[in-house]
Design goal:
8-stranded mixed sheet, single chain, 17% helix, alpha+beta, 5-stranded antiparallel sheet
Length: 739
Amino acid sequence: MRITSILAMALATSAAVTANPAHAQTEEKAKDAEALIYPETKTVDVVDEQFDEKIPDPYRWLENDVREDADVAAWVAAQNAVTDSYLETLQGREALAASMTKLFDYDQLDVPVEAGGKFFYERKSGGQNQAILYVRDGQDSEERVLIDPAEWSEDGATALAEWKPSEDGSLLVYAVQDGGSDWRTLKVIDVVTGEEKPDTVEWVKFSNLAWMPANSGFLYSRFPEPKEGEAFQSLNKDHTVYMHVLGQKQSSDIKVYATPEKPELSHTAEVTSDKEWVVITSSSGTDDRYEITLVKVDANEIEPSKLVEGFDNSWSLIDGVGDTLYFTTNKDAKRLRIVKTDLSKPENRDVMCDGPDSETTTCGRMEYVWREVVPEHMATIDNAAIVGNLLVVDYIDDAKSRLETFALDGTPKGLIDLPGLGTVGGLNGSAKSDKGYFAFGSFNQPDTIYSFSGVGSAEIWAKPDLPFDSDAIEVTQRFYESKDGTKIPMFLVHKKGLDLSEGAPTLLYGYGGFNISVLPVYSAPKMAWVQAGGVYASANLRGGGEYGKEWHDGGRLQNKQNVFDDFIAAGEYLIAEGITAKDGLAIEGRSNGGLLVGAVMNQRPDLFTAGHAAVGVMDMLRFDRFTAGRYWVDDYGYPNKEADFRKLLTYSPYHNIADRTDYPALMVSTADTDDRVVPGHSFKYTARLQALNTGDKPHLIRIETRAGHGSGKPTDKLIEEYSDIYGFMADAIGLEIGE
């Protein structure tokens, strides 16, 4: 739960926070509640000079960790007190919470993982805060609970994160996520007896999990233990792959792969399903440019060898069949293709090398040879799996999924039928079994789990009972033009028969970054918005991965403004088409999408009526100084390079708030344990927005405790959070929430 108003009162005497009567809410709102008075945030005399530019940063002190700095804690408490008081004046929050509670009341299903004849899967039923891990001892066996995180904490904020069964299904390694942090603790459970093994591994982050043969141990990735008090803010460096040997202490774990000469690199390890090869993927940031390193599983010593050198292209392991490895790659294919290489048959290739007297000459070198299996297509490859003797490829085709199968030599075999417009997730299988699995869902349909064993129809493996009539919800796709003429897809979701003649209150969502595709998925909070009579719109902005590398490149680095233009054009289209009225448009984005909301609020405050900027990257000149922020330079650029600095300064939300300008109503949200986008971004942005003359509409921040960037958040916190935020935006744009 959030820091309470009682705590705010106890801390209100801090020198950091005092009342500022200059900021009062409008007379209309004042009729129903006490005047909205923001806390006055102290300022400090900090000015950075970069490239002959002097950059004031008067709220630098708000970057400090709320757990370590009493002044920051007092500021957080005072801000939450103001936000809580304002929210209590709004109508409809209770009705939204009740609607969301109902819409969460179904079985949220995950795709099963088969190991040793057992089936492992997560399911979260209505009312449960965290998913439970179940196991069946056979296809038709009764399920039993293997891990129930409800027993781990009183507030439900400790979650089961990644997990992996051993090949024979007798053991399972799993990760514990506490309070939403990206840090993980690994543990091992005996699947048959349910007994917890003594093995414990700490300081794991951004890790894959992979078992070695004969249950001898598992591979994982971790960072060095941070210094006292720096776990949630210090930069993440020196990522290392280790093997934990069962029954031993973590201090005895075997270092498998590290690059101390390049501490900025990150490394994750996989093992092919036939347990022949360890495949290590290394990256320097968030861009899809990797090096691939191999380790032979049965070698007497760990001897890493490079398969792919140079961070030039994306390479993603599908699986291995003996010495033949299959990958997806964007090398010579901007929307990706599938290639393979036979590790037992390197070929002699002519390369340039140094000859006598330092002259360059041609010499021979044995190299692995890549052969194309599935060529590039107009659609973009999102995922692929080997299932028996088939390659199953999940394509993104105009921001929705399509499944196609091929023989291992690339011969097309046909489509797997999908039940409509939606998204495939969790595609998995193995060369050792001809049965595979995937999930399929859409905006109006929570995930149904399917199994398949070839081309044609898939069979339902598990389907939830829905708490609403999905046929009563209409999902359509439109295309609109951005500022430069680029066609942008956008989905619209609303009740069938909704009268749009005068425009309906509309919530527009966007992300636009990091090659992440925003595809049709079910969301209980968004469905509550739709059921209340609103329109939900989701725009597929440049910067994402919907159309491959060109789409991603078109919205990053020096092209980042395209993302904001795409989003602004979406808002203009919704109004021009009469889908929403001019004063009826709210916007929302999370993380990179929070940056999006902050940027477009600065650039077009006249276009939007309300917004929600969640866990956003708001200070574009200092994002690379905290936790995982250094990875994001691939999308944003380097603040210490002049060309990048000047571009970042043009749109940084914190630095571009316009004084003497009427801003839309805005809710900023973050969490004290967010160690991905540290909450100081949101704190500083909100403080400056409140301090300047930005109009009479409310500009509030909602700060969660015992929560992080989003993953692992319990259901009750999600309902509380989104009933607050959607109630705030509904009030701002005139969406009437019925009882």
